[in-house]
Design goal:
By secondary structure, the chain is an alpha/beta fold. The protein has 19 helices and 14 strands. Among the domains are: 102 residues; 133 residues. The longest helix is centred in the middle third of the chain and has 54 residues. The chain starts with a strand and ends with a helix.
Length: 659
Amino acid sequence: MQIIEIVLYSKKGQKRTLKFEVGRTNIITGGSGTGKSALIDIIEYCLGRDTCMVPEGIIRETVSWYGLRIKYSQGEMFIARENPDLGRASTNSAYIEEGELVQSPLHAPEANTTNEALVDTLSRKIGISPNLHTPLQGQTRPPLEANIKHALFYCLQQQDEIASKRTLFHRQSEEFIGFAQKDTLPYFLGAVQEDRLAIEQNLTRSKRELKKAERALKEVQLIRGEGVTQAVSLLAEANEVGLTNLQTYPSELEAQIAILEKTINWIPGEVNFPEVDKLTQLQLKLQDLKDNFNNKSEEIRAAKTFTSEAEGYAKEIQQQEFRLESINLFNNIQTDVELCPLCSNKLDTPIPSISAINNSLSRVKKNLEATIRERPRLREYIEKKEEEKQKILDEINQINKIIDGIYNEGQAARELRDLNVRRSRVIGRISLWLESVNLNEDYSDLEQAVEELKEKVSNLESQLDNEEKELRIQSILNRIGFQMTEWANNFDIEHSGNPVRLDISKLTVVIDKVDRAIPLYRIGSGENWVAYHLIAHLALHKYFTKQNRPVPRFLFLDQPTQVYYPREKDEKLLGSIEFLKDEDREAVKKMFDLIFEVVKELEPNFQVIITDHADLKDESFQEHVTERWRDGKALIPDSWIEGTEDIKTKNAKKSGEKH
């Protein structure tokens, strides 16, 4: 991504276009208060920043839309953002147009998208793949996905940033931005594999499946492993309530289960005390009713199973019918059954006649109709059985109430009830345990699944190894540091001659001396700060370009000569640096020569845009000047300003903006 045009649309319907050459250095030189520094804010706002940071003043008062015409390796795009109303910081209205060759509209566009959609489009267009940085355990900040807005941190250097000793990157000093740069820079450097997000999602899913498989395996193993112990415990309970009379317990689980299965067939025995005969009859009748109730339940279950199978059969028949009817080859009568209906070649085996196929189709339809006719009968049968079952249940409840009444008549009845309740509880526990035991169950498949999932999780974790990531980062930074060191030596700045490197954990430049490491904020002089900023950003962009990383291919520098050029004397000097000391003029020349050299090396894939007061007479500088904002010329033309406003007032408003 490089910038072809910056376009402003006035509220009066006028258009202002700043043209730039791709693959070259573009310099806008001019005086204070002409709107040079506002260009970075305009670019960042057009490329998706939520808040419009264009300074309040004449630009905000006269502009209706800001636009960018940008070029990709294939195709062009025009994007624009609406200027927020005065007093507001943002608007979601945006415009985007894409094609092989796109011209900026003659008049202000109408919104056709939102800022969120614009950011997604730009991120995808420059090649940012789905990604997600997940902070290390113990860190509280949320996961972060890199997008075009994060990539711009390495493309813009405002006036108060390029000469800063405490911040290296754009907006680094803002809350949370430094953390976002630390989290996303490894991705833009290529230290994080492009499919990391997919791997992380696969790992999360695999870990969930592994936990589920391990839990299922543990449950099976517990049942098998504790089988003998649980069986002996249940046999002891059965002995205690008189369901069994064992002197010793068998040691084999199969034999223990056989005894327990007999106990669940227990029915109440005869008790000889008043009302016991009636109670026994009721209990026998109750048992008969329960047996009948179970039989009805089994009949209903069998009927429902048959209904389900019949419906499945009907569906299969319908499928067969559709398949046969879908064959249109037999619409025309084929008289010769020994010829293929498709290619007319002679067949080794004659094909069935059309009448045979139609007979088959007819039989299928009859079977389907018979199955459909049976459905209402099955439903009537099931409903009838349900009614019979409910009547039995009502009778069981009635008898239970009578038995409860007998039990309440005396202590003997209560003792009998207690004994039967205890027996029932024991039988209930025995039944439940027997249902959970399956001696023939083979859980080798579960064991194999657990082992395979463990191996898969281990493999995915190795792909996300943070140590490997750190090694890749260090290797990349070493290569970038080597280039920074070479340029620092050519600049002949303070501490040159020592290795220079980027420290992305602290987001600064570090000079490694023999006895100590010196970070940028412990180096004196603005000349050194600007020089180290310049070589750091140029080295990064050289790496981004050579490795085809998803970062815009431009670098915007605002006022790189500010530490040499006295802004307060600009009206007199008009950009000339002839008055500077020889070493300062030489430093300024080296600065621009390095920029020209890097752009030339990476041509046509890298672009630098510079706004500055300085206007060097050097021929190489002059051939890169695209606009000169002096003698009344500025970002906002005078014709955009109300005619009743005098020039002095206009200049006062302009000078109130960043410059």
